[in-house]
């Protein structure tokens, strides 16, 4: 009985972890859905957004190291501590400016190019943004404090402890994960409604199908790209906050993209609900595998098992669970 | 005419005199990438100490030190590239701050005749100088660290760990796996139950591992982590309300940035350290001669921090070895081979450390032909979150050589057999 209860606990935590994976995957889906670009820079976008948020909140002077080295000054901070909400709003503003810059300096010049060219451009963007983040805000680890709760819920632990015997300590559920799940739910519902029912949402899908055809019916490709990169930037900020709250904001944050890839393979690159369902399946699958099989084979199975699970799904549904089936007739 | 002749004679004399070249110390640093937070303070400390030597003492034995910084991003391939790019400059010693890079460089330095110093990391059995002529890992290695942690726990439990449950949470890499054998052997000796739990790179997600720890309720958790794994582990430990005073990191999991993200929840977390923490007179000199002159490698904010101190200590050991080499060979202009001789004759005693303005920065030790590993001693420190500083809980603790020495002998001799190396120092 105790083992069964712990398996349930692992499953619940897998669902919660899956939500965090899905938050990263969402950014990929949005851009792929609207422009057919696999955005290699999505993980770095999350890092850049989180760095900017902490920098603004702490009143850090951007490019301080560069300014000091060039001018011999001793500038570091503005001397303020900004409220979290204001800092988040300003960061959203920075991500919109970044989206405009990406469109103006990269995407505008690549209209109607092969997807691989656009993909390569995002690789370059990833390296550029990582360097820019370093120069702007420094490479040290920053503590993210936007008031999110941390730690297991005592209430849940106490209420569920009675379910098992002496060796059962109640279900552990991190309060941060609960908040992340709520935020993800709101995001997915909003984005799905926007994508399916708004004029701009339909325009996004038209652009994804064919750049030139979309242009020919009067859709502003440039506006759509700015819009979608802005939304992806916002989603990256949310993912950066949730992950950064656990580890502090540091450059390894960009590696969270690795967690999104099997989710995308499983859920499909074009479906917003697919990102969530894919995330949940990967989260539960890898955690249960680690719980049941991991101890027999030395543990640390999660990273590779997520990909194996995604590959198994691909055998039966190459387009992913919710991806669009593309049939090209000769 | 006499003046002209004198000028020509002086010129000829100067031309004939052997020119004193710089003493070259490559710094294979990582200021970018996921491990930059640890690489930056170490490199700052390493470079600032050489700058201090130049600015305060006019160099080492009168010869200026020149640091060649090369960015590895903690990437093994880039580390090897950096080695190849800098060795031709007359490099005297390499300290790559990466176990992965160390393993790649061991055969190279043996072929090129350049000493490799891996302080508290790298290949542990390189402590056997009879096999590893060009590799040094004083003052302590991983196996020493594991043993120091167990000795500390023995002391805390009245010398008896039988029946206790100890979990090793380790980075799933060559580095993280290093202490397993030692801890297993020590478990047999002292009767504790050991569970080893791996965490895959980079360690951003550790929910499974900490749920397992919560289920199994070990008495102690020992962590062999690096990078983001440390910060996440400390936060997850706080999340499951694991008693922080029973959570001990190794010396690569005990810096200020490892505990800062968890805030007050990290209070009480412990870590090993191979060098002393706290203010030292040498830091004042670095501020005066280096930072205040705008010559610091960083912005000066890292001075005195754990990894800055360790980087500075690494440079200090290199400088003292260079001075020893200069004395042995009677020349200030030493080569890599002479540097190796200096390292093999290095003695760090209390008087020398005090004279350097760094009393007690490390344990007292002497290097010999057969022993490249030093004393293996380490301290245990504890994080005080309210004051935002590490506090030393112990003096230097000795490892269990009865366990460590046979392991070093076995592993190094296997390496010697594989590589047809005839043991020396007989």
TrEMBL record, chain A:
A GO-annotated cellular component: plasma membrane
Transmembrane portions of the chain: 12-32, 44-64, 84-107, 116-139, 178-198, 219-243, 263-284, 296-316
Record InterPro entries: ABC_transp_permease, BCAA_transport_permease
Protein origin, superkingdom: Bacteria
Compartmental location: Cell membrane
Gene Ontology BP terms: amino acid transport
Bilayer topology annotation: Multi-pass membrane protein
Any GO molecular function: transmembrane transporter activity
Keyword field: Amino-acid transport, Cell membrane, Membrane, Transmembrane, Transmembrane helix, Transport
Similarity-based family: Belongs to the binding-protein-dependent transport system permease family. LivHM subfamily.
PANTHER family, per the entry: ABC TRANSPORTER PERMEASE PROTEIN, BRANCHED-CHAIN AMINO ACID TRANSPORT SYSTEM PERMEASE PROTEIN LIVH
Protein name: Amino acid/amide ABC transporter membrane protein 1 (HAAT family)
Native organism: Rhodovulum bhavnagarense
Automatic annotation (TrEMBL), chain B:
InterPro entries tied to this protein: Leu-bd, Peripla_BP_I
Matches recorded under Pfam families: Peripla_BP_6 (PF13458)
Signal peptide: 1-21
Domain Leucine-binding protein: 28-384
Alphabetic keyword roster: Signal
Coiled coil: none
Family the entry assigns: Belongs to the leucine-binding protein family.
Name of the molecule in the record: Amino acid/amide ABC transporter substrate-binding protein (HAAT family)
Species, as recorded: Rhodovulum bhavnagarense
């Amino acid at each position: 009985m105790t083992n069964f209860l712990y398996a349930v606990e692992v499953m619940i935590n897998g669902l919660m972890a899956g939500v965090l994976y899905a938050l990263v995957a969402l950014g990929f889906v949005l851009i792929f859905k609207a422009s057919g670009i696999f955005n290699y820079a999505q993980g770095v976008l999350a890092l850049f957004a989180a760095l900017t948020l902490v920098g603004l909140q702490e009143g850090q002077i951007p490019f301080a190291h560069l300014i000091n080295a060039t001018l011999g000054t001793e500038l570091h901070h503005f001397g303020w501590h900004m409220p979290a909400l204001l800092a988040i709003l300003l960061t959203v503003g920075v991500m919109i400016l970044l989206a405009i810059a990406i469109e103006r300096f990269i995407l505008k010049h690549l209209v109607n190019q092969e997807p691989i060219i656009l993909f390569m451009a995002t690789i370059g963007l990833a390296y550029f943004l990582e360097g820019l983040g370093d120069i702007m805000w420094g490479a040290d680890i920053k503590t993210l404090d936007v008031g999110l709760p941390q730690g297991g819920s005592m209430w849940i632990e106490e209420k569920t402890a009675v379910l098992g015997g002496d060796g059962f300590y109640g279900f552990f559920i991190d309060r941060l994960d609960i908040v992340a799940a709520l935020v993800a739910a709101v995001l997915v519902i909003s984005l799905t409604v926007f994508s399916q029912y708004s004029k701009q949402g339909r325009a996004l899908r038209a652009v994804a199908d064919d750049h030139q055809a979309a242009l020919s019916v009067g859709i502003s490709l440039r506006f759509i790209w700015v819009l979608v990169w802005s939304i992806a930037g916002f989603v990256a900020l949310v993912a950066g906050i949730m992950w950064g709250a656990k580890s502090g904001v540091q450059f390894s944050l960009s590696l969270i993209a690795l967690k999104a890839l099997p989710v995308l393979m499983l859920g499909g690159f074009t479906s917003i609900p697919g990102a969530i369902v894919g995330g949940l399946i990967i989260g539960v699958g890898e955690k249960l595998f680690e719980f049941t099989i991991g101890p027999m084979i030395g543990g640390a199975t999660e990273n590779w098992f997520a990909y194996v699970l995604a590959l198994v799904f691909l055998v039966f549904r190459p387009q992913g669970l919710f991806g669009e089936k593309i049939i090209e007739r000769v | 005419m006499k003046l002209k002749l004198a000028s020509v004679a002086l010129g000829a004399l100067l031309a004939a005199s052997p020119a004193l070249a710089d003493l070259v110390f490559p710094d294979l640093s990582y200021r970018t990438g996921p491990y930059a937070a640890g690489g930056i303070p170490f490199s700052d400390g390493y470079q600032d100490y050489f700058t201090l030597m130049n600015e305060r003492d006019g160099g080492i034995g009168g010869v200026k030190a020149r640091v060649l910084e090369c960015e590895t991003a903690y990437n093994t391939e880039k580390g090897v590239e950096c080695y190849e790019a800098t060795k031709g400059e007359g490099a005297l010693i390499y300290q790559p701050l990466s176990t992965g890079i160390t393993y790649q460089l061991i055969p190279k330095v043996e072929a090129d005749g350049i000493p490799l110093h891996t302080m508290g990391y790298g290949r542990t059995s390189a402590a056997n100088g009879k096999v590893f002529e060009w590799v040094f890992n004083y003052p302590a290695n991983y196996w020493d660290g594991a043993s120091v942690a167990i000795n500390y726990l023995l002391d805390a439990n009245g010398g008896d760990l039988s029946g206790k449950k100890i979990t090793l949470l380790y980075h799933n890499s060559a580095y993280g796996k290093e202490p397993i054998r030692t801890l297993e052997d020590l478990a047999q000796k002292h009767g504790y139950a050991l569970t080893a739990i791996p965490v895959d790179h980079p360690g951003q997600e550790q929910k499974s591992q900490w749920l397992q720890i919560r289920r199994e309720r070990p008495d102690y958790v020992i962590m062999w982590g690096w990078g983001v794994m440390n910060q996440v582990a400390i936060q997850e430990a706080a999340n499951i309300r694991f008693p922080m005073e029973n959570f001990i990191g190794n010396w690569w999991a005990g810096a200020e940035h490892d505990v800062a993200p968890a805030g007050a929840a990290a209070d009480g977390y412990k870590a090993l350290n191979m060098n002393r923490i706290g203010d030292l007179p040498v830091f004042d000199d670095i501020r005066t001669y280096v930072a205040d002159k705008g010559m610091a490698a960083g912005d000066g904010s890292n001075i005195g921090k754990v990894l800055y101190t360790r980087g500075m200590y690494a440079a200090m050991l290199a400088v003292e070895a260079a001075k020893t080499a200069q004395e042995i060979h009677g020349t200030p202009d030493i080569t890599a081979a002479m540097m190796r001789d200096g390292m093999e004759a290095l003695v760090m005693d209390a008087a020398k450390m005090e004279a350097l303005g760094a009393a007690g920065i490390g344990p007292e030790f002497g290097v010999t032909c057969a022993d490249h590993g030093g004393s293996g001693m380490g301290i245990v420190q504890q994080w005080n979150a309210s004051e935002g500083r590490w506090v030393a809980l112990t003096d230097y603790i000795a490892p269990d050589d009865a366990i460590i020495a046979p392991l070093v002998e076995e592993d190094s001799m296997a390496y010697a057999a594989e590589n047809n190396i005839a043991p020396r120092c007989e």
